[in-house]
Amino acid sequence: MEQEQNGLSIKPTEATLIIAVLMGLVGYLIIGLQVVPHLAIISGIALLLGYGVIKKVSFKDLEEAMANGAKSGIAAVMIFFFIGMLISSWMASGTIPTFIYLAVDLVSGKFYYAIVFVVTSIIGLSIGSSLTTAATVGVAFVSASTALGISPVITAGAVVSGAFFGDKMSPLSDTTNLASSVAGADLFDHIKNMAWTTIPAFILSFVVYLLLSPAETAKGIQQIAVVKDTLLNLNLVHWYSLLPFIILALLAAKKVPAIATLSAGILSALIISFYTNSGIGGKGFLDLLYSGYKSESGIKEVDSILTRGGMESMMFSISVILLALSMGGLLFRLGIVPAVLSIINSQLKRVSILISATAGMAIAVNFILGEQYLSILLPGNAFKEHFKKAGMEPKHLSRVLEDAGTVVNPLVPWSVCGVFLASVLGVPVTEYFPFALFCLVSPLLTVFYGFTGITLPKPAKIYSNSRKLKQSQNMN
Q1: How far apart, in whole angstroms, are the C-alpha atoms of residue 86 and residue 109?
Q2: Exposed, middle or buried: residue 39 (CB in 10 Å: 0-12, 13-18, 19+)?
Q3: What are the φ/ψ torsions at residue 393 (nearest 5 degrees)?
Q4: Which are the contacts of 405, defined by CB distance < 8 A and separation ≥ 6?
Q5: Cα(428)–Cα(37) distance, integer angstroms
Q6: CA distances from 122 to 167, 361, 373 (A)
Q7: Which one, 24, 144, 362, 393, has the greatest CB density within 10 A?
């Protein structure tokens, strides 16, 4: 990375101290004082700017570093705008209301969280996008839980778990392809090898969600009838309202670029909206895409469920992401990230420590930089050669990157995924965190396998592979 190459050369202990202070400050403001993430990140940026001045780095260089960091998130920003328009158009077309209708029609409370987890897992696996899954059927399930008198917080945790299970195991997922590519593993070998940690995490999460699911409640039964009747009266429940979702899934399966896929989903929903909302004119549809869908049924519970989406609703998320990425740019320019990486590189001798260090770095990058892709790229590049020297295959590295990188990002309040999910689901990350069971269990399992050697080459085989590698290098 250019930022890494132009960074300062500082001592690892100094970098570690700066990271500790930075994380303490941001964590205290967001979790302790419960301020908005923007102010916490701005405080972190101010801390780093002050450190840069002490290190005699010019403000011009510091500003350039922040700009470079923000630039890396432009693609995500564009997708967020399209997601906002997708949600509002899917509300108007009846796509999400139809999902809500089906959810409250088929589910009365019994096994609710487990069903949410399984359904979002299947859909996430089908389309390969955790954020799209959460922003569509995930929104429907959280909305339905409110109508049923069931905890929207636990439902949000189940949605996040299922969506990221699907994202992690889908060959259509960008993070799945990225992890296998960085490690140099075959995509399907990577997915098959992930099953050793992912399936146990899935089963354990499913059982806990079964136990957490409430019994059928009187409030839920009463609310079901109210919600169903209101959705029907609003003319938002139709079989053809599901067509935008089918189009989206088919295009995703064909690996059509995200912007084109989302555009097709939006356009098809707008066409259907002409029939479901005949009173809306051309300007009304443009306002819908920007300001979101506004429900005026007169039923408070239903209106709060359906009033969502629009480009405007994404502004909060986008501003947090740009600030977080700007802070990441400073961390590179000031040499803090490279210095921390050098500490870990010098401590790797045992396989268990190697896997723990790789997982630890992936988790740390998520919490420090808030960026999912970097949580795969940085540790992947840093430990790739160490895995080779240890005699392990690329699929072992790629599995760790997904177990501790991909699924941890939604657990960070200031991360790209965390901010997005809190925005669309209406549940803060700090609240759904303990119930995102799959995301919590996955990194623990990968570290456990590292210490026990489960599914890893035996020590003798590792030694043999390492010796063959050295002999090959000497011959060359």
Answers
A1: 28
A2: middle
A3: -85, 160
A4: 175, 179, 362, 363, 365, 366, 372, 375, 376, 379
A5: 11
A6: 10, 30, 23
A7: 362
- Work out the burial of residue 143: count CB atoms within 10 Å of its CB; fewer than 13 is exposed, 13-18 middle, 19 or more buried: buried
Of the candidates 17, 19, 41, 18, the one whose C-alpha atom is nearest the C-alpha of residue 29 is 41
Torsion sign, CA atoms 421, 422, 428, 429: positive
Residue with tokens 């997005």: 420
Query: Among candidates 161, 164, 159, 119, which has minimal Cα distance to 142?
Result: 159
**CA distance linking residue 409 with residue 153, whole number of Å:** 18
Identify the sign of the CA torsion 385, 388, 390, 394. positive
Cα distances (Å, whole numbers) of residue 335 to 75, 140, 284:
25, 44, 50
pLDDT per position in the chain (476 positions), as tens?
A: 444 445 678 888 888 898 889 878 887 887 777 787 788 889 989 999 999 999 888 889 999 999 988 887 777 678 778 878 988 888 888 888 887 787 666 655 578 899 889 888 887 876 667 887 888 778 878 887 877 778 899 999 999 999 999 888 876 677 787 788 778 887 778 888 999 999 999 999 999 999 998 876 545 555 566 777 888 888 888 889 889 988 987 887 787 877 888 899 899 999 998 877 765 666 777 888 998 888 887 777 677 667 878 888 878 778 877 887 788 788 888 988 778 777 766 666 678 888 988 898 899 888 877 777 778 877 877 788 788 888 888 899 999 999 999 899 999 988 878 988 998 898 999 999 999 999 999 999 999 998 888 888 765 454 445 455 455 545 44
User: For the chain, what percentages of helix, strand and coil (3-state, to nearest 5) are there?
Assistant: 80, 0, 20
- The DSSP annotation for 182-234 comes to HHT--HHHHHHHHHHHHHHHHHHHHHHHHHHPPPP-HHHHHHHHHHHHHHHHT
Task: Identify whether the C-beta of residue 324 lies closer than 8 Å to the C-beta of residue 371.
Answer: yes
| Contact between residue 49 and residue 62 where contact means Cβ atoms under 8 Å apart | yes
Q: CB-based burial of residue 54 (10 Å sphere; 0-12 exposed, 13-18 middle, 19+ buried)?
A: exposed
The SS3 of residue 86 is helix
Nearest-angstrom CA–CA distance, 192 and 194: 5
In this prediction the pTM is 0.68
Phi first, then psi: what are they for 293, rounded to 5°?
-85, 135
What's 408's DSSP letter?
Answer: T
